[in-house]
Amino acid sequence: MANVCYLEGERLRSAEARRDLLRERGLTAPRTAEEAIDLIALAVEVFAPDEGFRGRLIQHSGSELRIVNRECPTYSLVEAQNWHGVTACASWHRRRGWFDALGVAASDSVLFERKWGDPACVCLLRVEAVGALR
Fold first, then answer.
1. pLDDT at position 27, please?
2. d(CA 70, CA 75)
3. Percentage of residues in the chain with pLDDT exceeding 70?
């Protein structure tokens, strides 16, 4: 139950932060999947830890974005705290909050995770529809 509460809180906080970012930049909700992917990539950069995002963003098509991060800050934090009770990466829930705030239907596939011994955390985001949640 603690994991569920924590992860849902991350989703809600991320949605609000995403809305704040849109307001601050004078932006509105995306009109196309391509605009949504651009706004998601912006969020990756803006909401990075203080030392900045050190991974790679690879746009495969107008509506797909691959995030590759060998220096995953979430994994590093879990390792530093020696807390192995985490059952799901909060990054997935944070991205779900971004999708909520943008009003998009999107898939988010975690392809690799350092937590499970992979050399990098990698996810593939695909925006399937805009205005889907309004």
1. 85
2. 10
3. 91
Query: What CATH number is associated with residue 29?
Result: 3.30.1380.20
Largest CA distance in the chain: 43
Q: How far apart, in Å, are the Cα atoms of 27 and each of 33, 36, 38?
A: 15, 11, 12
Domain holding 126, by residue range, is: 2-130
Q: Per mean pLDDT, which range of 16-25, 47-56, 104-113 is the poorest? A: 47-56
Instruction: Tell me the residue ranges of DSSP E strands in 1-134.
Output: 56-61, 64-69, 104-112, 121-130
Q: Is there a contact between 54 and 29 (Cβ–Cβ < 8 Å)?
A: no
Residues making up the chain, counted from first to last = 134
Give pLDDT, residue 86: 60
Note the pTM of the prediction, 2 decimals: 0.83
- Domain tally for the chain? 1
* Rounded distance between C-alpha atoms, residue 110 and residue 40, angstroms: 16
